[in-house]
Design goal:
The structure holds 2 protein chains of 2 kinds.
Chain A lengths: L1 E5 L2 E3 L21 E3 L1 H15 L5 E8 L4 H10 L3 E6 L6 H15 L3 E5 L10 H9 L2 E12 L2 E8 L2 E8 L2 E5 L11 H7 L4 E4 L12 E7 L8 E3 L2 H11 L5
Chain B lengths: L1 E5 L10 H12 L2 E8 L3 H9 L5 E6 L8 H12 L4 E5 L2 H13 L5 E4 L1 E2 L4 E6 L4 E7 L4 E5 L15 E4 L9 E8 L12 E5 L9 H11 L2 E4 L1 H5 L20 E5 L5 H7 L4 E6 L12 E4 L2 H10 L2
Parallel strand pairs in B: 1-2, 1-4, 2-3, 3-10, 4-9, 5-9, 12-13, 12-14, 14-15, 15-16
Antiparallel strand pairs in B: 6-7, 7-8
Helix pairs in contact in B: 3-4, 5-8
Classes of the chains: A alpha/beta, B alpha/beta.
């Protein structure tokens, strides 16, 4: 079984981003970049499928700037067999990324596509669902457990009320939630080996994808800061404040 | 201009989350219709028809929509929504799953989790875990959006008398099936709708200790939440998680117990009206957003808090 796993280069989750001084966008100059944490979980799941003998080949793919090669090398070090970079200097929207991924799916015919449920930069939570629409495949978002049996995949999903289980025909698209697995660290020998693995590059134009933006960023601002309040001395003072000052309990 | 609001419901009743999207639709302006998709969902449709200011309610009542599988519902939304200028749904796990799929079928770039309406094509939305608010303008012919429920006060649930029309089309490509669900049963209010939320973090130590919070919650009519650390540690189930990737809440009172206040947690609760933090570490970042901070051992303070209610 062939597995395609998509990864995105994003600001590292430990970085607190700030707007540029002209407030046109966030300031990403000299900021540490990493593989999106949810994508890392998707890569780990693909590697585990290969270790179980379910997956035979793992292809890591990224749609983004040239430097996304670093994140693809990370995926290769974790266990992907080869990588594809759809390279662009534009900041692509999820719909355009989904169209690029669709073109690669048409060429590679994967049986399973694993992705993160959202990227922690735009927090859109859209690309997997849109790729599913464009390919006509079934989708299981927010996955916390997957089981493959023949040409079906059963997925436990994290939903508002608890957990939901769905079964999909393969090929299908699964987006990883936090509790799908805990990603491993790449070992040094594997990092070295990853440098020699195949990494092909193309562009959205090569794939025939129109990536013209539909949504324009007009500007950014910081959210209203919350003022720190007061420290209370004990529980009695806390209860008194909640009853008589904030009036939120009676 | 006309907006189609996708209802959140359990077939028998309309979920209040729907009313947050109605409020966002009112801010956009124009006619507002509600689409109720499900199986045996006529009661929910009847409630939707009572919402003030609704033009009409469309009901797609069909076995194909029984469990709201994205593969079946997204083509319906794309079909019905094609004649509207805006399609809205409140950011629940249902909407997050289905709306982008419907948008792609319409060749639209959707906008997730809007927190303000500036004009019919311009909206605000949080990015980077809410550390930055972006203002974005859509050039798509149809604006497809999810709505951050806590950012829009619910529209009145009654006072209207909209007509109800059936939608006949049934989409089922036959590529997915519903197997089952494990839904937490609780007499306490839903996290996202509760007026008071009391949440526990890693400091709670284990799942049994959450009983202390349930006891207080039952006295206050509160919902109980948790930080990601508490969920990852297996103290409580994932549906209790408050934060960037869990539930976004904005109650009148939020009590954070044994929660340090990681940025991902703050993203899910910092719009609460009054925040209380109880933590033994006085340097915990949670105190920087708390209106009332109590530096204390929660195992002493929480029983005392309970006894004083």
């Amino acid at each position: 079984m062939k597995v395609l796993v998509a990864v995105k280069r994003v600001v590292d989750y430990n970085v607190k981003v700030r707007p540029k001084s002209d407030m046109t966008d966030v300031d990403l100059a000299n900021v540490k970049m990493s593989i999106n944490p949810f994508c890392e979980i998707a890569v780990e799941e693909a590697v585990r499928l290969k270790e179980k003998g379910v997956a035979t080949e793992i292809i890591a793919i990224s749609v983004g700037p040239q430097q996304s090669q670093e994140q693809l090398r990370t995926a290769l070090a974790l266990g992907a067999d080869r990588a594809i970079l759809v390279s662009t200097d534009e900041v692509l929207e999820p719909l355009a990324i989904a169209k690029c991924l669709k073109a690669v799916c048409d060429a590679e015919s994967p049986d399973l596509i694993l992705m993160g449920k959202q990227a922690i930069d735009g927090d859109n939570n859209q690309t997997g669902q849109m790729l599913a629409a464009l390919t006509g495949f079934g989708q299981a978002t927010f996955a916390s457990e997957i089981t493959i049996d023949g040409d079906k995949i059963t997925v436990i999903r994290e939903v508002d009320g608890g957990l939901q289980t769905v079964a999909l025909n393969l090929p299908a698209i699964v987006t990883a939630d936090l509790r799908l697995n805990e990603p491993r660290y790449a070992s040094l020998p594997n990092i070295m080996k990853a440098k020699k693995k195949q990494l092909d590059t193309s562009t959205p134009a090569d794939l025939g994808v129109d990536v013209a933006p539909r949504v324009k960023m007009l500007g950014v601002e910081l959210p209203a800061e919350r003022q720190a309040g007061i420290k209370v001395a004990d529980v009695a003072e806390l209860v008194d404040k909640l009853k008589n000052e904030a009036k939120v309990i009676s | 201009m006309s907006t189609l609001v996708i209802a959140e419901h359990d077939n028998s009743s309309l979920n209040i989350a729907t009313l947050n999207s109605v409020a966002a639709a009112q801010a956009i302006g124009g006619d507002i219709d509600i689409l109720v998709v499900g199986e045996s969902c006529q009661d929910a449709a009847a409630q939707a028809a009572k919402v003030a200011g609704i033009n009409k309610v469309l009901v797609a009542d069909n076995g194909a929509y029984a469990n709201l599988l994205a593969e079946n519902v997204a083509p319906l939304i794309a079909e019905v929504g094609a004649s509207y200028s805006h399609i809205l749904a409140t950011s629940t796990s249902m909407a997050k799953n289905i709306i982008p799929r419907a948008a792609a079928l319409l060749d639209v770039q959707p906008i997730s989790d809007i927190s303000a309406v500036i004009s019919a094509d311009t909206f605000k939305r949080p990015i980077y875990a809410g550390n930055v608010i972006a203002t974005v303008q859509s050039s798509d012919a149809i604006k497809v959006m999810t709505v951050r429920g806590t950012a829009f006060d619910a529209a009145p649930a009654d006072g209207g008398s909209a007509s109800i029309e059936a939608v006949a089309s049934a989409h089922n490509p036959g590529i997915s099936t519903f197997v089952g669900e494990e839904v937490a049963v609780s007499d306490r209010p839903e996290l996202t709708a509760a007026e008071i939320v009391i949440s526990g973090g890693r400091g709670m130590g284990n799942g049994e200790n959450f009983e202390m919070l349930y006891s207080i919650a039952d006295k206050l009519g509160a919902a109980v939440g948790a930080s990601r650390a508490a969920v990852d540690a297996g103290f409580v189930p994932n549906d209790m998680q408050v934060g960037q990737t869990g539930k976004i809440v904005a109650p009148d009172l939020y009590v954070a117990v044994g929660i340090s206040g990681a940025i991902q947690h703050l993203a899910g609760m910092k719009d609460s009206k009054v925040i209380v933090a109880i933590n033994k570490d006085e340097e915990a970042p949670i105190f920087s957003v708390a209106d009332y901070g109590l530096v204390a051992d929660l195992f002493v303070a929480i029983p005392e808090f309970d006894a004083s209610l």
